Amino acid sequence: MLEVKDLHVCVEEDPSEKILKGVNLTIGKGEIHAIMGPNGSGKSTLSKVVAGHEAYEVTQGDILFEGESILDLDPDERAHKGLFLAFQYPVEVPGVTNKTLLRQAYNTIAKEQGREELDPIEFEDYINERLNVVDMKPEFLDRSVNAGFSGGEKKRNEIFQMAVLNPKLSFLDETDSGLDIDALKIVANGINQIADEEKSVVMVTHYQRILDYIQPDHVHVMLDGKVVKSGDKDLALKLEEQGYDWLTDLASVSVNGEQN
């Protein structure tokens, strides 16, 4: 579904500031991946670049989604193809209700993908069913997007948007950060309900704790702008016990496009 090939990225305002330094990553259909690493390793940058954030410039490499390069596509065009990014810090949009935003987004994506659009009554039924995924109450639909929401409510709202828009590939940028244990369980349960053999999920996280509730197929570690180690859930458990120091030497090793 997604192939990141030798991706090098810098900050557009400062080309000398290199953040990603040759990332290689392959995400198959129906897979759940976790990307871990300390602050400044490039995890969040990778998710933003895949989504098309304009603050970054790709200087080398490519990003292929379903076999086609998306480097020249704007963020909305990538979303129309089925990409979704849940923000680490969800933005408040006063004056625009969740229901209005999601109906417009859903129908725009449906039209681009050749699917049937929903009229207001059909969408009302559909969106109310999706509320159960993250245990949200109907009154959330008529509130402005994230305005006045608690931190946990904002993160649940991101997963709710994911449930409604039904993307093919979702990047979740530290969705677990700042959540208490009850909110974490609700968010994890929502992700588990959404994920299936046709959809892929990439979780960007510092900690192993969300992986207690979501079983990843693959775990990757990023250090200094590279993927330096890949494995299964046991790798996440080892990181929880030993930290990242034992992997530091790998960050400076060229792997010639192959993951360790």
What attributes does this structure have?
six-stranded mixed beta sheet; four-stranded antiparallel beta sheet; 7 helices; disordered C terminus; 12 strands; Rossmann fold; alpha/beta; single chain; 260 residues; globular; 32% helix
Instruction: Compute the number of structural domains.
Output: 1
What average pLDDT do the residues reach? Answer: 89
CATH topology: Rossmann fold
Strand line-up across the major sheet: 6-9-10-3-11-12
Instruction: Name the beta content range.
Output: 25-35%
Query: In the CATH hierarchy, what is the superfamily?
Result: P-loop containing nucleotide triphosphate hydrolases
Largest sheet at a glance? 6 strands, mixed
Order of helices and strands: EEEHEEHEEHHEHEHEEEH
Oligomeric category: single chain
Work out the radius of gyration.
18 Å
- Show unreliable segments: 254-260
Under the CATH scheme, which architecture would be assigned? 3-Layer(aba) Sandwich
Q: Briefly, what CATH class?
A: Alpha Beta
Beta strand count: 12
Describe the fold and architecture.
There is one protein chain. The protein is of the alpha/beta class. It has a single domain (2-252), classed as P-loop containing nucleotide triphosphate hydrolases (Rossmann fold, 3-Layer(aba) Sandwich). It contains seven helices and twelve strands. It has helices at 43-51, 75-81, 98-112, 120-131, 151-165, 181-194, 233-242; strands at 2-11, 14-27, 32-36, 56-65, 68-69, 83-86, 93-97, 144-145, 169-173, 200-205, 218-223, 226-231. The strands form three sheets. A six-stranded mixed beta sheet has the order 6-9-10-3-11-12, with helices on both faces. A four-stranded antiparallel beta sheet has the order 2-1-4-5. A hairpin with a 2-residue loop joins β4 and β5 (68-69). 38% of the residues are buried.
